[in-house]
Amino acid sequence: MKITVIGAGYVGLVTAVCLAEVGHQVLCAKKSKKKFEMLKKGISPIYEPGLSEMLQRNLKENRIDFTTDIKEAVNFSEAIFICVGTPTTREGKADLSQVEDAVSSIAEHMDSYKLIIEKSTVPVNTHLKIREMVQAETDLEFDVASNPEFLAEGTSVHNFMNPNRIIVGVDSDRARKIFQEIYEPFTSKGYPLLFTDIASAEIIKYASNAFLATKISYINMIADLCEKTGANIDDVAKGVGLDHRIGDKFLNAGLGYGGSCLPKDVNALIHTYNELGLDIGLLKETEKINQNRREIFYRQVEEILDEIEGSTITLWGLAFKPNTDDIRAAPAIDIARKLQDRGAKLKLYDPEAEDNFSLHLPENENVTYFQDKYEAVKGSHALLIITEWDEFKVSDLDKIKKLMASPNIIDGRNILNTELMAEKGFKYVSMGR
Ligand SMILES: NC(=O)c1ccc[n+]([C@@H]2O[C@H](COP(=O)([O-])OP(=O)(O)OC[C@H]3O[C@@H](n4cnc5c(N)ncnc54)[C@H](O)[C@@H]3O)[C@@H](O)[C@H]2O)c1
Fold first, then answer.
1. SS3 state at 175
2. Share of the chain above pLDDT 90, in %
3. Model confidence pLDDT, tens digit, residues 86-108
4. Separation of CA 310 and ligand 1 centre (Å)
5. Cα gap 426→429, rounded to integer Å
6. Does the CB atom of residue 204 touch ligand 1 within 6 A?
7. Whose CA is nearest to atom 11 of ligand 1?
8. Left, alpha or beta for 163 (phi > 0: left; psi -120 to 50: alpha)?
9. CATH classification code of 2-196
10. Domain range list for the chain
11. Does 262 sit in the ligand 1 pocket, CB within 6 Å?
């Protein structure tokens, strides 16, 4: 089946490549000329495990192509996935300008029936606005549907190809049939496709992300109790997570959540509740606890070092989570900026996110980026672990101790063993243990 995807970011590119992988003919619209050239050559502008190989295979087999011509993209197929960004405005609501721009282009150029699919995360009843916009421009037939995306960066190709569930909000049989065809390669393997009304599908995405964010803040709240009482949050989380009703995922205490989705979706949902005059105290607390994690971590750094000014501090991990180069709303941004403002010399290392991070914090006499985790700790007074990349879990601790000016480690992700660290002679603090 022919499919159009508008936007080639984390969601758009993965959607386009994975739909091509299962046999569809996909044309993906890209705005930036430079990245378009890269994509045509099979180079992914984003880092996602497995994505480049899949992109190259599907380009070679002619199942995927890219264009910067939005008219060509709109008229390529009748199913159009909108996968553009919906960032947060200053007031905390979802900025729908990229979605509106894409919808205007569809309305302007469509020459036959179109199924306009919201894959971007958009607030409940956005479909009504989209419908109004298109109706104002054309008499041609069209449907609007919601098909929220649940992939997680770092594992997105695997998530898309092996979904827990596919959620589709539709209000016409025609739209329903098109989705059945699009997702047949998945439903035939037993992956569940749940049809709902459109507003419910829009809400399912926010309800899921807000729940995950709340689960993280909840365990961080319990971590504070562990810290005050001498208990160990790792054991507590394990004990709690063994209950099947709760589950063990998203129960890692530490620096809290970041990234392009959880913070913005929590904020946007709070905004929607406020607009509707509904009470949203629970989510406000989720957000507050999360922000506070960065403060708690920072205080630990202050406590362990006599003086931040003039200290050399290493950050291991800049991405908001492992296996991605995405640094949007990453805790490392707040922490590095604060340390820089206080006069620390920063040594930064991340396996994938350094290029993106250096756009926020360029290299200068007090900020240096390293290609090797050991080089980055040379002469440091403290090593801060910000992202739980696998390569940080197993390190030569004796070597690190020798290289550092003082053996201080503040572990924001609880990835190292407290007893081992004491045995090796480190001054080691983590969160809630
Ligand atoms: N990143 C995730 O893990 C994730 C997971 C699930 C859902 N989502 C949602 O998916 C949406 C996209 O997120 P993302 O992380 O992929 O964002 P992104 O910023 O990585 O990608 C969006 C892309 O759309 C492009 N774009 C904007 N307008 C365009 C237009 N008119 N024509 C062509 N391209 C256009 C932008 O240039 C950008 O490359 C958001 O609503 C997000 O909340 C993201």
1. helix
2. 99
3. 999 999 999 999 999 999 999 99
4. 40
5. 9
6. no
7. 120
8. beta
9. 3.40.50.720
10. 2-196, 198-433
11. no
